[in-house]
TrEMBL record:
Keyword field contains GTP-binding: no
Modified residues (4-aspartylphosphate): D59
Domain of life: Bacteria
One BP annotation, GO: cell adhesion involved in single-species biofilm formation
Designated name of the protein: Response regulator receiver modulated diguanylate cyclase
One example GO MF annotation: diguanylate cyclase activity
InterPro entries reported in the protein's UniProt record: CheY-like_superfamily, Diguanylate_Cyclase, GGDEF_dom, Nucleotide_cyclase, Rev_trsase/Diguanyl_cyclase, Sig_transdc_resp-reg_receiver
All residue ranges annotated as the GGDEF domain in the record: 176-306
Ranges of residues in domain Response regulatory: 10-126
Length: 306
């Protein structure tokens, strides 16, 4: 765990009485927390929108909007639901305590409180919040790694198939068109044989950059295997898919690549498959794209076949 640095945590103090706010801020200041405050529930809700506190010390009994209501509102909004809330109250009513926890509070302290105890609780909650944040970040990093092809940085086969299947499901449900392109670099073995595997890798990365330039934001692109790629074209009928495919084919064939001082021209063959409503899963579409690709190869490569 990272060393504890109180100044990195922003604590929002909420009370309807400004003297109480002042006292709490002075206490938090002795440790070095970053602090901000709101007088009353309404101001608290506005404050949370503009700052992102790591913890809220929330007074329970306040006129207009009381603490329980503030808590309920914050917990029902995805953007603020994760902010831990510690209630501070003069109420000895056990009902209040139970309600506070039911509304999603992490802690409940009655006034008058003991300063060291309050500070110990605050520290526990901000540290827990930090651990939670680190876990979320680690999960995101792992998901990204699990989805990404190491050589090219685009989606790997698993992620690509997942996306394609989702798109297939959407078409199945709404009857919207969609197409797949399967792109395979022609005679790629020759590149590896002549320039070596690391240069082959470089050529694959180059092809990826060229394909990317020919796609729209909504199109999805992944590495299916070696020098084979699949482009998913959502909401696109055959005419549009053929245009995209032709643009990609032309871009690859017309731009020279430099390998070991040689100017190399690569070409690619592209098979196109459209969603017809007859396939059971996207695998059927991929098989048809592969068949078209095979025909493009058989007919002399550097061409698009649907
Ligand atoms: P064609 O597709 O036109 O029929 O011929 P090809 O030479 O491209 O045929 P094939 O698909 O059989 O060969 C692809 C080659 O790509 C074989 C493999 O060594 C190479 N390859 C696959 N993955 C990688 C990679 O990650 N890096 C490099 N450098 N080469 C790779
Ligand atoms: Mg009050
Ligand atoms: Mg090939
Ligand atoms: Mg291949």
């Amino acid at each position: 765990m990272k060393p504890f640095k109180p100044e990195e945590f922003l604590i929002l103090v909420v009370d309807d009485i400004s003297k109480n706010v002042q006292l709490l801020i002075e206490i938090l200041d002795t440790v070095g927390y970053a602090t901000t405050f709101a007088i009353g529930g309404k101001q608290a809700l506005e404050r949370v929108k503009s700052v992102k506190p790591d913890l809220i010390l929330l007074d329970l009994m306040m006129p207009e909007i009381n603490g329980l209501e503030v808590c309920k509102i914050l917990k029902s909004d995805e953007a603020t639901a994760n902010i831990p809330i510690l209630f501070l109250t003069a109420s000895n009513d056990k009902e209040h305590l139970i309600k506070a926890f039911e509304q999603g509070a992490v802690d409940y302290v009655t006034k008058p409180f003991k300063v060291p105890e309050l500070l110990a609780r605050v520290k526990t909650h901000v540290e827990l919040k930090q651990v939670q944040k680190q876990l979320q970040e680690a999960c995101q990093t792992m998901k990204k790694l699990a989805d990404t092809d190491e050589l090219t940085g685009i989606a790997n086969r698993r992620c690509l198939l997942e996306f394609a299947q989702r798109e297939f499901q959407r078409s199945l449900r709404y009857g919207t068109p969609f197409c797949l392109l399967m792109i395979d670099v022609d005679h790629f073995k020759n590149i590896n044989d002549k320039y070596g595997h690391p240069n082959g890798d470089k050529a694959i990365q180059w092809v990826v950059e060229i394909i990317k330039l020919g796609l729209r934001e909504v199109d999805f692109f992944g590495r299916f295997g070696g020098e084979e790629f699949i482009v998913v074209l959502p909401q696109t009928a055959l005419g549009g898919a053929l245009e995209v495919a032709e643009r990609i084919r032309e871009a690859i064939a017309s731009q020279p690549l430099t390998l070991e001082q040689d100017t190399v021209t690569l070409t690619a063959s592209i098979g196109v498959a459209t969603y017809t409503g007859e396939d059971k899963t996207v695998v059927g579409m991929i098989q048809r794209a592969d068949k078209s690709l095979y025909q493009a190869k058989a007919k002399g490569r550097n061409q698009v076949i649907a």
